[in-house]
Amino acid sequence: MAFDSDLNTLYFGVGNGTPWNPNLRSAGEGDNWFLSSIVAVDADSGEYKWHYQTTPGEGWDYTATQHMILADLKIKEIVRKVLIQAPKNGFFYVLDRETGELLSAENFVDINWASHVDLETGRPVVNPEAQYWKTGKTTFVSPAFLGAHNWHPMSYSKDTGLVYLPAQELAFPYMADDNQVPKNLAVNIGIDTTFSAIPDIPEVIDEIKKMSKGLLVAWDPVAQKEVWSVEYPGAWNGGVLSTAGGLVFQGTATGFLNAYSAIDGEALWSFPTQTGVVAPPISYAVDGEQYITVSAGWGGIFPLISGVLAWDAADGQPINRSRLLTFKLGGSAELPPASEQLRDMPDLTAIDLDPEVVKLGFGVYERFCAGCHGGGAIGGGVVPDLRYSGFIQEAAAFKSAVLDGLLEAGGMVGFGSEISEEEAEAIRAYLIFRNQVAQKLGDTKRLSR
Length: 449
Ligand code: HEC
Fold this sequence. Notes:
By secondary structure, the chain is α+β, with helices and mostly antiparallel strands. It is 17% helix and 29% strand.
């Protein structure tokens, strides 16, 4: 949300449509007004002023709830009151915030769902192949549902005129499941997510990792082009702070807080945080002394769901150590040594598995468990990595956690009302299978979660 006191206007972004698959929402047709939109209302009465829909009829989880910045920009010699947003769909929008008129839109990373935004109509020119619900084909669409920019705040510097944007490049294979029956405690998006599981072929894994990256992009909102950028190994790096001192601060998924020159992106300083950082730092002064504080810690949907990609983004050892870190010039405090030890994965390769049962378990896992425990059962450092869990070695223990709610106090609800004992056993078989795959790949050590 953003509030403009001059215009007495409140701006808010609207999320995606759900189920994602438009066939299940509105017979695959229509713009679905106000989804993925920026809406302006009168701050006193709430009365509608205007709206701009970034992704009409969206089907890829392209929210427009991202951070909105109000600025006065000189565009074609006229100073315009603008609203700037870089939503999940990968376009950087500059709107006149008095009227809602679209002034410009350019993609800030490579995307394939649309070729461009038509400035006459204000509508994206959508690539028909990306409309998986119409073609019926599995289609790799970028950005993925995690967006080219997620919730991590960007920052505008009046001094440089640039917007510093925590961006990412990810693609996702969308496959419609028009017959999906909604279930409690499950992911009900009308997409067959078993198609998105990354195959266990090292070359394919490498290829997918190469397609995924994180970026800090310094974007010129008037010229609508990149001025400089910094590349990270993976997505989900932190929100950004730019300062009057000409610095840009950003935490990373790899566990650093970095400072760059706002003008050219030169790396000036870096602090190892012992954990991925997703929140934006803040800057403030107390008694004339300047501080930078960041709420360090690793979490959110990317490490929960994305399995090997989260693993890679965090440089191979994703872990959350939540701490408030504060810095000042001449500060000399040090972090205590990292206490977590590397853990060995139990070796379950001696267990014989029935491939049919593993397959059944895979489907149930994807629908009920992958959203927290990770695609391919690879944990992203926030909740336990189930391939390492003692619970998967014993049917009764597994049942008590998964069906009966033994760990409910820790955030792991019991699924007994939705999943049968047979299905729970099948999930257990699938997890043992994932353990065996990791053993084969020699990927058997991780920090404690
Ligand atoms: C909404 C998030 C979420 C979902 C969905 C979820 N879990 Fe969990 N799970 C957790 C959390 C959080 C814990 C840690 C609980 C604790 O530490 O007490 C956990 C712990 C576990 C454990 C114990 C691991 C250990 O070694 O301590 C097992 C086993 C488990 N989950 C299995 C599953 C299965 C199977 C599914 C799908 C049917 C599932 N979970 C779905 C969040 C989730």
